[in-house]
Structures are given as structure tokens and as C-alpha cells.
Specification:
Number of strands: 16
Shape: elongated
Structural class: alpha/beta
Largest sheet: 9 strands, mixed
Distance between the termini: 62 Å
Radius of gyration: 27 Å
């Protein structure tokens, strides 16, 4: 799982390890080609896979330096640390569970490389790759070492990693340039996706001061065996006009309860994928042939792209936000600690992190030389007629090595003191907190992070399972917020929690709930105007005008309505949000708008009321007597006209 992302008998969902119709952004997406395994081929997995193969060639099947074998803790001799300790073949046979003892038919560099070319790439090595590999063999200090180096390097090439023909172009890929020092204050979005469809009607629950159809008693009757008892609820005030004056927050979320009461967290109720305003009379007409409601994979795509009519295909909502900010002069960064997702797809390269392994070095064998430079040369630029799968691999290699160098140096330079829970989500949030602390080193001004929590598809025995996962979310949230406050950055961060859909309000016969539509989600941050429930908590009774069948509730608010103020918080201008970030939002009226001032406290998003004074590094309000114009500077900020 940590090395390849495909542990036997441990698929993360019913969809196995990757989706059959997955297409990574870049040349494959542009050509309408699918590459399912690219969904697990993140930068950490790419490096760990290559290191596992390097270890096998060097030591046999053991776990030395990222190997795929079993523990080396009690091996004798232990993993070698110097050239003098290098294992001979007889030691490999004794210790490992198998080794590569391939004997080539010839012993000169040209014939060794040609033989490997036939065996491993069907004779598809480019002239450039062949020439470089021959030189490596010749420069090795003996025949065995040269053979092993050639094997290690050929498996890093696009010729080996794809079955298409690679056409090498003269030159080298462009290296990322150094960024200038940041001039704008930092802001970050942390998106937490609860994969599987969280039962959010057991997270925020009608409590008291309710209309008849949404009372706690009505809730208990409708939810039956999956209902949460009143003794398991922490009471929160709705504040806004909701069907109940007070709701109950599941007591597995005690820290989120604190954030809500401290006015650092809010809920938005009745949210989901919508093509346009919808009710019982038109829900099928509005969505048939456009989306596949209630399907995990399609609804994950719709909730992460937020572009239901594909006006900007191949992009996610997070990616479009970052693309817009970059065009407006911000130094941006897209980082995922939760694997591959369409959420971050856009113009910005995505950096991936595996919390279980950390930032890895390619070929970490201590007595061997660094091979990164030659690996980069072997994955150089290709011609337009070259195979697109090979080009995709080569691009991933370059990004993986660039990210490894960049982020390892940054992360090694700072430490975080907060203790995080050793859980799937806790480890992800720890990495995000650590990365945020390196923001000045990396010279970044706007970042979007993607994290996931798995296992929310509870068709059976939802009670204990939901409690366990909610506690995991709550503990991770507690540690993360504590660390953000320690870094004095909590006001600059917003957390957006989502799930692909909600679940049926009526239980099934297995004590679980099934795929549905509307859900309730939270935002948290130092500038979030918390302590309130926005949106509209739905009537969940059987006769509800939004109940289409079995407690599948039609959303009242589209995902777009939540994303608009979040994009504004990050600095995207209103006209850009409506045109590019949430293009379908124009189909919804003002009653579906979550106004920025309703969601966030006063801050320094440049607009006609406030501006950020970069000289004094403070937030200022336009003077009422000051003559203002609607001119903007090159970064889109309003400028004063004295």
C-alpha cells in the first residue's frame, strides 16, 4: 500500500484502486484517452515504486532502502551502508526471498544495453537513451555494477513504462524558476473530502424549537434504528431562519462544537449537486442525461469539479481558483495529501504527499551515487508525434523529482510541536500543517490543500462506524487548529468539509443508510463568521416537497453557493468567480447566494469597502470622504484616487 498504492485484498472501495475511466490532466485528457493506474501514480508512489525496484536489483526481495520485501530488522548481515558491506550473490540467496541473477549473453556495454532493450522495451529505446545507458555501463567500476546500473536506469524510462513509441526531442525540459519574495499576505484553503457519502443527517440533527415536520420526534421516527438519541447531542443555536431554533451536533464532534460556539465554524445545510433550482416536479428533467445522481464516482467528480455542464472540462473547482489567482499575480500552490483527485486539476502543477512515507529521495542507497540527473535526461522532452503515455510518465518523473528536492529541503528546515493523532486523516492534516509552516521558505501566497477520509459508505450498522469516523475527523481538526493558532495563521486559513452526497433519511434493513443527495457540511477558520447554520435545513418527513423517495432529499443550495465566498476569501474577484470559477451559478437567483459578509468576518479582501495597505501591512476601510474610483491595479486591487 505505501509503495505501490495497491495492497492485495485491501482495495479502498468497491471501485478497486482506480476508476476505469480515469484520465489524468495533460496530454492524455486532451486526447480523450484513459489511464486508470495514473490515479495512484502520484509523485510519492512513483518514487517509492522505483526505489522498490532498485532495492530488488541491488539486494533481492528485502525491505532495504524502500524494498518490497519483509522486515530487515533481524537480518544478519543487516542492510549494507558502505561499499565494503555490499552483498554478494550468495548473501542475497541466503537472506532475500528472491533476487535478480540475470546473466547477459555478452560482457561489453553496447551489447548489454541492446540485450536489455530487446528484453525490457521490445527494442523501443531511443537513440538518446541507448547512448546514455551505454556511457553509464562504461563508467561503472566493474561489469556487475554496470549491468545493475543499466537495469536500474532503463526501468525509469518512458520506453519501459509505456508500450508506445517514444520520439525524443533535442534539449531539456524547462526547470521551474525561482520565485520572488512574497508581497501579499498568505491564505490557504484546506478541503477535506469524506469519501463514500457521509450521513450528515446524523451529524446535524433537529433538536428543539422546531416546526412539526422537522422536530426531533419526527426525526427519530423517520430515522428509526439509525437515529441518534438526544443524550448524544450537543445543542447549537441555528441563529438564522431555520426550521428549528436549535439543532443537535453529534457528540462525537466535541471540538467542532467548541469551534461553532467560539464562532469559528458554521454549517451550510441542504447542499448538493444541482443543475438549476429543483423540486419534485422537475428533478428528473433537470438532471437526466446530465449527471448520474447517487453514483459514487460520478458524484465525486461533480462535487470536486463543480462544473456540471463541463464548460471548463478537465478542471476542478480548486484548480480553477488557483489558475485565476495565478493570472492575477499571486504565487500559488496546489498540494494533495489525499491522493489523486479532479478537485485540483487546472493550470497549476499538483504536488502529492504520502503521509505514511514522507518526502522520499530517489535511489536512497547510501553508498551509491545520486542518479536523479541522468533519470531526468532519460525523461526529456518528446516530439508531438511521440506516444502520449510515455510523455505522461516523463512529466510525472520530472515533477516527482522536482517536488522531492523542493519540499524535502523546506520541511527539513522547520518543525511543528503540536501532537497529531496517528490516524489516516490525522497524518494528512499533520503534513498540511507542516507545509503551511514552510510557506515563507517556498515563497507562496495562496495554497489549496486536498485531504480525504475514507469509509463513509455505510450501508450497514451506521451507528458505531459513523461515531468512529467522526471522532477521527474531530481529533484531526483539534490538532490542526491548535497548530494554526501556534503559527499565528488561523485567520488566514479556511477548512471546507464535503462529501459526494448525503444519505437516505430512512434506514435500510441492515441498519445502514443508502446513497442520496442533499447533505450538510461545515466551514471553519479564524475569519469564518461561525456559530450559525446557513442554507436551509430540509424538511425530511415522508411528505416533504423535497423528498423524492425513501428519504432522498433534493438539495436547496448548489455546491456553487458554498464555493463563491470561499473563492472571494482567497482573493478571486466576483466577476471572475461567476465567469470561470462557478460558471453554472448564473442559473441560480439571489436566494441561492451565500453572501461573503454572511460567511466571513471583516477582512482584507480588496473590494469597495476595504483595502489592504501593503506599506503598513494592515487592513483599512475606505474613508467616507475619500473619492474612490473603480480602477484596479495589475493585481486587480482597487486603487485610491486622491
Amino acid at each position: 500500500e505505501n509503495s505501490l498504492g495497491q495492497e492485495a485484498h485491501a482495495a479502498p472501495s468497491v471501485f478497486s484502486y482506480f476508476l476505469p475511466d480515469f484520465s489524468p490532466s495533460g496530454p492524455l485528457y486532451s486526447a480523450s484517452l484513459y489511464s486508470p493506474e495514473s490515479q495512484v501514480l502520484t509523485s510519492p508512489k512513483l518514487i517509492s515504486t522505483l526505489n522498490g525496484l532498485f532495492s530488488f536489483l541491488e539486494f533481492g526481495l528485502v525491505d532495504c532502502y524502500g524494498g518490497f520485501g519483509s522486515s530487515s530488522q533481524f537480518m544478519d548481515p543487516s542492510c549494507p551502508k558502505t561499499k565494503s558491506q555490499r552483498w554478494l550473490n550468495k548473501i542475497k540467496r541466503k537472506i532475500s526471498y528472491g533476487s535478480s541473477l540475470y546473466p547477459p549473453a555478452a560482457n561489453n556495454a553496447e551489447k548489454i544495453v541492446d540485450e536489455l532493450d530487446v528484453l525490457l522495451t521490445n527494442g523501443r529505446l531511443t537513440t538518446y537513451s541507448r547512448r546514455n545507458l551505454i556511457q553509464v555501463v562504461k563508467n561503472s567500476h566493474n561489469f556487475v555494477h554496470g549491468l545493475r546500473n543499466a537495469q536500474k536506469l532503463i526501468i525509469t524510462t518512458p520506453e519501459y513504462q509505456s508500450t508506445s513509441v517514444v520520439r525524443r526531442r533535442v534539449g531539456f525540459r524547462v526547470k521551474p524558476s525561482d520565485l520572488p519574495p512574497p508581497t501579499k499576505k498568505y491564505r490557504a484553503l484546506v478541503h477535506i473530502m469524506l469519501n463514500g457519502g457521509a450521513d450528515s443527517f446524523n451529524i446535524v440533527i433537529p433538536h428543539s424549537g422546531c416546526t412539526h415536520t422537522t422536530s426531533f420526534d419526527a426525526y427519530s421516527k423517520i430515522r428509526g434504528v439509525v437515529a441518534i438519541p438526544k443524550t448524544k447531542l450537543n445543542v447549537i443555536n441555528a441563529v438564522n431562519a431555520q426550521p428549528c431554533a436549535r439543532y443537535g451536533l453529534n457528540d462525537a464532534l466535541p471540538y467542532l462544537y467548541q469551534l461553532y460556539n467560539k464562532k469559528d465554524a458554521l454549517f451550510v445545510a441542504g447542499v448538493g449537486t444541482l443543475s438549476e433550482p429543483t423540486d419534485q416536479s422537475n428533478w428528473q428533467k433537470n438532471h437526466f442525461g446530465i449527471v448520474q445522481l447517487f453514483a459514487h464516482n460520478k458524484q465525486q467528480t461533480d462535487s470536486e469539479q463543480v462544473d456540471i455542464f463541463q464548460e471548463y472540462p478537465g478542471t476542478g473547482i480548486g484548480g480553477r481558483i488557483l489558475s485565476t489567482l495565478q493570472k492575477n499575480g499571486y504565487e500559488t500552490s496546489a498540494l494533495s495529501v489525499g491522493g489523486v483527485s479532479e478537485f485540483l486539476d487546472g493550470d497549476i502543477a499538483i504536488a502529492f504527499f504520502d503521509p505514511s512515507t514522507g518526502v522520499q529521495k530517489l535511489h536512497p542507497i547510501p553508498y551509491e551515487r545520486d542518479i536523479s540527473d541522468i533519470v531526468l535526461r532519460l525523461n526529456g522532452p518528446t516530439e508531438p508525434i511521440s506516444g502520449l503515455f510515455g510523455e505522461t510518465w516523463a512529466r510525472k518523473v520530472h515533477q516527482a523529482l522536482s517536488d522531492s528536492r523542493k519540499y524535502k529541503a523546506a520541511l527539513d528546515s522547520v518543525k511543528i510541536q503540536t501532537k497529531f493523532p496517528d490516524t489516516y486523516l490525522g497524518n494528512q492534516m499533520k503534513v498540511i500543517a507542516h507545509l503551511i509552516k514552510t510557506r515563507r521558505i517556498r515563497k507562496v501566497e495562496r495554497e489549496v490543500f486536498y485531504a480525504t477520509s475514507e469509509g463513509w459508505d455505510m450501508h450497514a450498522e451506521v451507528g458505531n462506524g459513523l461515531t468512529e469516523l467522526l471522532r477521527e475527523v474531530d481529533m484531526a481538526l483539534n490538532s490542526f487548529v491548535t497548530e494554526m493558532k501556534n503559527q499565528n495563521i488561523w485567520n488566514n486559513v479556511v477548512i471546507f468539509q464535503a462529501s459526494e452526497f448525503g444519505r437516505t433519511t430512512t434506514p435500510n434493513t441492515s441498519g445502514g443508510t443508502d446513497h442520496a443527495w442533499s447533505g450538510n457540511y461545515f466551514l471553519a477558520g479564524g475569519l469564518v463568521k461561525g456559530g450559525q447554520i446557513l442554507g436551509k435545513y430540509p424538511d425530511i418527513s415522508e411528505g416533504s416537497p423535497l423528498n423524492i423517495d425513501r428519504g432522498r432529499i433534493i438539495p436547496s443550495f448548489p455546491w456553487d453557493s458554498m464555493w463563491k465566498p470561499v473563492a472571494q476569501f482567497l482573493g478571486v474577484r466576483s466577476n471572475e468567480i461567476n465567469k470561470f470559477v462557478v460558471p453554472n451559478f448564473r442559473k441560480f437567483g439571489r436566494d441561492h447566494v451565500l453572501l461573503y459578509g454572511k460567511v466571513f468576518k471583516q477582512d482584507c479582501v480588496d473590494n469597495e469597502t476595504f483595502y489592504f495597505d501593503h506599506k503598513s501591512n494592515t487592513c483599512s476601510k475606505w474613508a467616507t470622504t475619500e473619492k474612490r474610483c473603480k480602477m484596479r491595479d495589475k493585481f486587480g486591487r482597487f486603487v485610491r484616487n486622491y
